[in-house]
Specification:
The chain is an alpha/beta fold. Helix content is 29%, strand content 29%.
C-alpha cells in the first residue's frame, strides 16, 4: 500500500479521527500513487494511523475513511457505510415514501465527499471529492440495491469541482455528471409537515431543496400566528409556506434573487392552495434597505441567506454581511416582532453568530431575546471528530 508520511508533530488530529489531511501536514509520499488511489497515512515514525484516498490536486491531500489496518476500502466497505447511513434515517422516521431526507451526510456518515438526498422515489447524489467520483461505479449500484429509487441524478458543484479536480462533462446542464434510471423532466414532489413541494433535481440549488431546515420551518411557524411575515432568500418557499399553513400567518411576502426560485415558490404556493403568500424577485440587502426607507413594518422576518464565505480569508466580510443583514431586518420589525435568522457558513461558529446578533441589537438600540438556538434536522448529523461539519445555525428571536 502506498504511504503518506506526516511531518513531525502532525499526527494527533488523525489519531483523533479527523478525516482531512491537508497538504501542509505531509512530509512525503511513497510508491507514486495516482490521484484517487488508496493510501495509508503513517506517522513520522512509520506507524499506521488510517487509510484514505489521495488527491494531489486538492488542499485536502488525503481523505481518511478507515482507522483499521485490516480494513480494505472495497465494495463491502462502502456497502457497510451506506447501510449504516440508511439505517439511521429509518430509525428517526425520515423514510416516509413521499418524503425527503438526507440519506448520506458526507464526513458525518464516514463517507467524506458524498452527499445523497432522497426525494420520494428519486435520489440526488452530490459529489464533493475526487475519491467519491472515482467510486461512483461501486456506490451507485449499492444505493440502487438499498433504496431502489426510480432514478438517480449525480451532480457536482462547479466551484468544488475546480478545487477537487473533478471531471465535469462538457456542456453539462446544472452540473449533472450522469443520470441513472428515470429522472423527471420538470419537478419531483415531496411532502413535509403536510405541505407539498416541487423539487428541481437537475437545476435547483444544491440538490434541489434545503432539507436541513425541515424542523426549523415548523418551529419558526409556531411563532407566526396572525403576523405579517417577510421571508428573505425564500428559495422555493419553505419558510413562507410553513408560516402560512402551519403557523397561521396573516400574510407572507417571499423575496429571492433568482427568478427560477421565485417561479418554483409560486408553483409550490399554488400546489398547496395557499392564497395569502406572494413571491417577488429582489436582492436581500437592497430590498431590506428599500423597505426601511419606505417605513414598512413586519411582525416577523426570516433570513436564510446562502453561504457568505467559502474560506477563512472571506470570513471577515461574511461577518460584516450577516451583521448588516440582521440590522436591516431588526429595523423592519414591529415591537415584539419575531426574527428567524440563519447562517449556513461553516466558518461562522454559533458563538460568532450570537455575537453578530448582540452587535445588531446594539446598533439598532433594541432589546433582542434569543428564544431558540437550533441546527439542522437529525438526518444532517455532524461528526464530533470533524467539527467543520457543524454548519447550520438557526436562531429564533424576539425583538422589543
Amino acid at each position: 500500500m502506498p504511504q503518506v508520511r506526516l511531518k513531525p508533530r502532525k499526527a494527533r488530529p488523525f489519531f483523533g479521527r479527523h478525516p482531512w489531511v491537508l497538504d501542509t501536514a505531509i512530509a512525503g509520499v511513497t510508491e507514486y500513487p495516482r490521484d484517487g488511489d488508496v493510501v495509508d497515512l503513517v506517522s513520522e515514525h512509520g506507524e499506521f494511523i488510517a487509510r484514505g484516498v489521495l488527491n494531489s490536486r486538492s488542499r485536502i491531500r488525503v481523505r481518511l475513511y478507515s482507522w483499521h489496518a485490516e480494513e480494505q476500502l472495497d465494495a463491502d466497505f462502502w456497502r457497510s457505510r451506506l447501510e449504516s447511513a440508511v439505517a439511521l434515517r429509518r430509525r428517526i422516521g425520515y423514510l416516509a415514501p413521499a418524503g425527503g431526507c438526507r440519506l448520506v451526510n458526507s464526513e458525518a456518515d464516514g463517507l467524506g465527499g458524498l452527499i445523497v438526498d432522497r426525494y420520494g422515489e428519486h435520489l440526488v447524489v452530490h459529489v464533493t471529492a475526487l475519491a467519491m467520483q472515482h467510486r461512483l461505479d461501486e456506490i451507485l449500484p449499492i444505493l440502487q440495491d438499498l433504496v431502489q429509487p426510480r432514478g438517480i441524478v449525480v451532480r457536482a458543484d462547479e466551484a468544488m469541482a475546480k478545487r477537487e479536480g473533478l471531471a465535469l462533462p462538457e456542456g453539462a446542464v446544472g452540473n449533472v455528471l450522469r443520470t441513472v434510471g428515470e429522472v423527471p423532466t420538470e419537478a419531483a414532489f415531496i411532502e413535509e409537515h403536510g405541505l407539498r413541494f416541487g423539487v428541481d433535481l437537475t437545476g435547483g440549488q444544491k440538490t434541489g431543496f434545503f432539507l436541513d431546515q425541515r424542523e426549523n420551518r415548523k418551529a419558526a411557524a409556531a411563532y407566526m400566528q396572525d403576523l405579517s411575515v417577510l421571508d428573505v432568500c425564500c428559495y422555493s418557499g419553505g419558510f413562507a409556506l410553513a408560516a402560512s399553513k402551519l403557523g397561521g400567518a396573516r400574510e407572507v411576502l417571499g423575496i429571492d434573487t433568482a427568478q427560477r426560485a421565485v417561479a418554483l415558490a409560486r408553483a409550490n404556493a399554488e400546489l398547496n392552495g395557499i392564497k395569502n403568500v406572494r413571491f417577488e424577485t429582489g436582492d436581500a440587502f437592497k430590498t431590506i434597505q428599500a423597505f426601511n426607507v419606505e417605513g414598512r413594518k413586519f411582525g416577523a422576518v426570516v433570513l436564510d441567506p446562502p453561504k457568505f464565505a467559502a474560506n477563512r480569508q472571506a470570513l471577515p466580510d461574511a461577518l460584516r454581511a450577516y451583521e448588516r443583514l440582521n440590522v436591516g431586518a431588526i429595523n423592519l420589525l414591529e415591537m415584539g416582532g419575531i426574527l428567524v435568522t440563519c447562517s449556513c457558513t461553516g466558518g461562522v461558529s454559533r458563538e460568532d453568530f450570537t455575537y453578530i446578533l448582540a452587535e445588531a441589537a446594539a446598533r439598532t438600540r433594541r432589546p433582542l431575546q434569543i428564544l431558540e438556538t437550533r441546527g439542522p434536522a437529525p438526518d444532517h448529523p455532524f461528526s464530533a471528530s470533524c467539527l467543520e461539519t457543524e454548519y447550520l445555525k438557526c436562531f429564533i428571536c424576539r425583538v422589543g
